[in-house]
């Protein structure tokens, strides 16, 4: 279950690497992904939310029994 969110993480990094926040402003991925007012595309925002829900599902005891839905 530890690797169930790995695909989402890779997609998020790929999406963030194509944004102006990382390309032009030379800011780290973590800083760009964690902004309250995002300078990133709506696709990246959606991936960020999905990745967050995946990671939260890893610590939810009900989901641990059934297994995380994964990517």
TrEMBL record:
One of the Pfam families matching this protein, by short name: Pet191_N
Keyword entries, A-Z: Disulfide bond
Keyword match Disulfide bond: yes
InterPro entries: Cyt_c_oxidase_assmbl_Pet191
Domain of life: Eukaryota
Family classification: Belongs to the PET191 family.
PANTHER family in alphabetical order: CYTOCHROME C OXIDASE ASSEMBLY FACTOR 5
Protein name, per record: Cytochrome c oxidase assembly factor 5
Organism: Urochloa decumbens
């Amino acid at each position: 279950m530890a690797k169930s969110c790995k695909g989402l993480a890779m997609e998020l990094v790929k999406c963030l690497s194509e944004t102006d926040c990382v390309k032009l402003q030379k800011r780290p991925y973590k800083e760009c992904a964690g902004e309250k007012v995002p300078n990133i595309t709506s696709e990246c925002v959606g991936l960020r939310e999905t990745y967050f829900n995946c990671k939260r599902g890893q610590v939810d005891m009900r989901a641990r029994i059934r297994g995380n839905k994964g990517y």
